[in-house]
């Protein structure tokens, strides 16, 4: 079997230079992405068309010397599979029918998810066949709380209404989270069965929660998700990315059962290392805004990030997703610096 450098790091090895992939590496900053995106009826249709989704995964791998590809899909296919209406407004982002507008919260059975999302698993199979053998294939899902926030308030933005809902309707929120835990476990297990080498849980909205609420909506559901995944026979490494967890990052790293920790832009590597279990692989945390700016300052910052993470097994990544205004040549220069030190 060809060795996949990112898998070695997830197994606890330090590699110099570190393997690299970029969150949202497939997307609108690439002209060739915008071109195939225009062929799909809408964004979800794009996600459910394996030929297009596979092409989106392959585009950044052709341009840049990346060590991993990530399934092209979205965290919001899960509410779609659970029968909640999901659509994307051009230039604004996702919209869902808010649960907050309803007296009774209803959603489909988690049993339906794997059947509904069959095109996603077909995409995973086809990516594995299309990708070089040494490239790691990452499957993913949203964290239960992050997906719940979109379902509860129907859009992104500040999460104040979701926080109030957890205080005012704790039973409804707990029931929603437990449906999401089961549905997410099955969705991730199906991606692994189709060929994903490892998994990432995007808990993108971990910020701003008082500790007891963080326990209730992030720690408990993630722990349950990890236990359920392992019970389903999934043994691959799992990267947890609790963006914005801040002072509670260590509890996430120690208590949930994830294998590796995604570190966001504001969190120093040394802080993450001190909080996480000894030797836990860390992924991150270059500033996506610096990637837009480019130049010598960007290259110096890349070297600083590599130095900052030197005490841990490290996967180089951004601290959040790449944005549409990023010039692709800046990413080429960044990867070059990481790979050659110059
Ligand atoms: O290369 C990859 O990483 C592609 C796969 C991927 C997408 N979304 C494609 C996508 C992944 C891993 C995601 C995760 C995702 N989706 C998250 C967690 C990561 C994060 O950034 O915090 C979240 C919160 C979502 C929900 C979502 N989907 C939002 C907020 C948006 C709008 C973003 C925007 O800038 O408009 C989406 C749409 C989306 N998902 C796009 C892509 C490439 C852009 C839509 C388009 O092409 O029209």
What is the CATH domain class? Alpha Beta
What is the percentage of strand-forming residues?
5-15%
Strand and helix order? HHHHEHEEHHEHHHEHEHEHEHHEH
Output the structural class. Answer: alpha/beta
- The residue-averaged pLDDT reads 96
Q: Would you identify the CATH architecture? A: Alpha-Beta Barrel
Number of strands: 9
Shape: globular
From the alpha carbons, calculate the radius of gyration and give it in angstroms: 19 Å
**Ions and ligands:** coproporphyrinogen III
Largest pleated sheet: 7 strands, parallel
CATH topology: TIM Barrel
Task: Compile the SSE list and pairings.
Elements: H1 5-10, H2 31-37, H3 43-47, H4 50-63, E1 68-70, H5 77-81, E2 86-89, E3 93-96, H6 113-116, H7 118-130, E4 136-142, H8 144-153, H9 160-168, H10 170-193, E5 198-203, H11 211-231, E6 238-242, H12 249-255, E7 260-262, H13 269-275, E8 282-286, H14 288-293, H15 295-308, E9 314-318, H16 328-340
Parallel strand pairs: 1-4, 4-5, 5-6, 6-7, 7-8, 8-9
Antiparallel strand pairs: 2-3
Helix pairs in contact: 2-4, 4-7, 8-10, 9-10, 10-11, 15-16
The site of coproporphyrinogen III has 22 residues, from strand 3.
Quick synopsis:
This protein is of the alpha/beta class. It contains 16 helices and nine strands.
Provide an overview of this structure.
The chain has helices spanning 5-10, 31-37, 43-47, 50-63, 77-81, 113-116, 118-130, 144-153, 160-168, 170-193, 211-231, 249-255, 269-275, 288-293, 295-308, 328-340, and strands spanning 68-70, 86-89, 93-96, 136-142, 198-203, 238-242, 260-262, 282-286, 314-318. It has a single domain (5-340), classed as TIM Barrel. Helix 9 (160-168) packs across helix 10. The mean pLDDT is 96. The strands form two sheets. Strands 1-4-5-6-7-8-9 form a seven-stranded parallel beta sheet. It has a two-stranded antiparallel sheet with strand order 2-3. With 342 residues, the chain is of the alpha/beta class. The structure holds coproporphyrinogen III (CP3). Coproporphyrinogen III (CP3) binds at residues 23-28, 37, 43, 70, 72-76, 88, 93-94, 140, 156, 202, 204, 321.
């Amino acid at each position: 079997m060809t060795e996949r450098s990112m898998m070695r790091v997830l197994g606890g090895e330090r590699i110099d230079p570190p393997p690299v992939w970029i969150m949202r590496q497939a997307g609108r900053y690439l002209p060739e992405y915008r071109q195939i995106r225009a062929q799909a009826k809408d964004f979800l249709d794009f996600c459910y068309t394996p030929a297009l989704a596979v092409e989106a995964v392959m585009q950044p791998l052709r341009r840049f010397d990346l060590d991993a590809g990530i399934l092209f899909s979205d965290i919001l296919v899960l509410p779609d599979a659970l029968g909640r209406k999901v659509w994307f407004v051009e230039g604004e982002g996702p919209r869902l029918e808010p649960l907050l507008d309803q007296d009774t919260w209803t959603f489909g059975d988690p049993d339906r998810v794997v059947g509904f999302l069959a095109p996603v698993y077909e995409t995973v199979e086809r990516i594995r066949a299309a990708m070089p053998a040494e490239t790691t294939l990452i499957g993913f899902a949203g964290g239960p709380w992050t997906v719940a926030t979109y379902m509860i308030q129907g859009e992104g933005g500040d999460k104040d209404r979701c926080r109030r809902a957890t205080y005012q309707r704790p039973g409804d929120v707990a029931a929603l989270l437990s449906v999401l835990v089961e549905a997410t476990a099955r969705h991730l297990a199906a991606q692994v069965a189709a060929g994903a080498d490892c998994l990432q849980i995007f808990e993108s909205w971990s910020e701003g929660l008082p500790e007891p609420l963080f326990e209730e909506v992030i720690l408990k559901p993630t722990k349950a998700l990890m236990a359920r995944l392992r019970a389903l026979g999934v043994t691959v490494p799992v990267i947890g990315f609790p963006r914005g967890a801040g002072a509670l990052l260590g509890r996430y790293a120690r208590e949930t059962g994830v294998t590796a920790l995604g570190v966001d832009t504001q969190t120093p590597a040394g802080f993450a290392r001190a909080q996480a279990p000894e030797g836990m692989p860390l992924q991150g945390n270059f500033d996506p805004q610096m990637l837009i700016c480019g130049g010598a300052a960007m290259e110096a910052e890349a070297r600083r990030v590599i130095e900052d993470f030197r005490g841990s097994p490290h996967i180089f990544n951004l601290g959040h997703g790449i944005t549409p205004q990023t010039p692709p040549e800046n990413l080429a220069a960044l990867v070059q610096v990481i790979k050659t030190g110059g």
